[in-house]
């Protein structure tokens, strides 16, 4: 099996003054070696929380309440913080939307890169300087910039430096949470192209998180759609370009201008995502779903898989296998 990451029945919860919040509920997905897997959904759907759970960046009171995260055969949820620190950067790195603002403004780029390299790998300072130069070259930034302070660089350059840092120890998996959202479109396009070139060159896998479905459709091999903490659909890019199955994904697709073909009127999805402390009975999406059936108000749909992907919706009941059946046949 060439799965690099296996997330199984992951649950992430936190306590709030009003009660327990199920921010991520029982989600399962895999990412293959060299694959770009996207997670998409409205803000608050749990996609960033999932990324934080995988990369151990959850802050209390949020915590993993169940499930397993296996990276290249290692169960991450069992690792101590020290053990996790050993694989951070060398096996898994994360790039956040705001990362470029997290560079220390009063420390030169060179020193920040070298500190990051030496914190995770033993090498002579001279070699670390050379490695820092090499990393800047990878993201098309001239070596002279090593002597700059972050405030002397544009947002796009700073985000490129963050990408260079994430690549420093050649990780197998890079999690990118809205990595270009804070940048203007032209700079964003340049950075996305760079990410794709580097991914081809080094072959790492990417978990790419964004609310921007058209961007996802351009770059991801497979896309997972989250709604109210749950994974409701997973599809290969080519399948999704032909049209989604889940009514929520269909709604998302209609909220953005089409990539190709005739311009159609954009339709938003009416209503709001549910309160995660008190979600509706049955299918979480039923109050907003144009295809809602009486059954949907009472029974939660199970996620089922077939050759097209996975979908959790009563409209497709009986058309696929359960996750247990799928994992039993793939072992
Ligand atoms: Fe709509 Fe019912 Fe499917 Fe939920 S299960 S998405 S309410 S059709
Ligand atoms: Mg987010």
Automatic annotation (TrEMBL):
One of its GO terms (molecular function) is ATP binding. Transmembrane segments: none annotated. SMART domains: AAA. The keyword Cytoplasm does not apply. Keywords: ATP-binding, Nucleotide-binding, Transport. The keyword ATP-binding applies. Coiled coil: none annotated. InterPro entries: AAA+_ATPase, ABC_transporter-like_ATP-bd, ABC_transporter-like_CS, Oligopep_ABC_C, P-loop_NTPase. This is ABC transporter ATP-binding protein. It comes from Metabacillus bambusae.
């Amino acid at each position: 099996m060439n799965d690099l990451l296996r997330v199984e029945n992951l649950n992430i919860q936190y306590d709030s003054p009003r009660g327990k919040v199920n921010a991520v509920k029982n989600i399962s997905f895999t990412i293959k070696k060299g694959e770009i897997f996207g997670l998409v959904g409205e803000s608050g759907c749990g996609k960033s929380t999932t990324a934080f759970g995988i990369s151990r960046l959850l802050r209390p009171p949020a915590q993993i309440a169940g499930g397993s995260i296996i990276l290249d055969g290692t169960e991450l949820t069992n690792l101590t913080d020290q053990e996790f620190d050993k694989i951070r950067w060398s096996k898994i790195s994360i790039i956040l939307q705001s990362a470029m603002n997290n560079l220390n403004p009063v420390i030169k780029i060179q020193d920040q890169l070298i500190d990051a390299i030496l914190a995770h790998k033993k090498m002579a300072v001279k070699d670390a300087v050379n490695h820092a130069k090499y990393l800047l070259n990878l993201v098309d930034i001239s070596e002279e910039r090593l002597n700059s302070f972050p405030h002397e660089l544009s947002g796009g350059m700073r985000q490129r430096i963050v990408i260079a840092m994430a690549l420093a120890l050649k990780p197998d998996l890079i999690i990118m949470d809205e990595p270009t959202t804070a940048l203007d479109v032209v700079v964003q396009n340049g950075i996305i192209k760079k990410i794709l070139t580097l991914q081809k060159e080094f072959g790492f896998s990417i978990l790419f998180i964004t609310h921007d479905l058209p961007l996802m459709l351009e770059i991801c091999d497979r896309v997972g759609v989250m709604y109210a903490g749950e994974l409701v659909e997973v599809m290969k890019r080519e399948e999704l370009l032909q049209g989604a199955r889940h009514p929520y994904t269909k709604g998302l697709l209609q909220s953005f201008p089409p990539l190709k073909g005739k311009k159609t009127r954009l339709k938003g999805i009416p209503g709001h995502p549910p309160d995660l402390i008190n979600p509706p009975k049955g299918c979480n999406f039923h109050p907003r779903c144009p295809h809602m059936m009486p059954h949907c108000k009472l029974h939660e749909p199970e996620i089922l898989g077939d050759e097209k992907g996975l979908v959790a919706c009563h409209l497709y009941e009986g058309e696929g296998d359960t996750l247990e059946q799928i994992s039993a046949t793939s072992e």
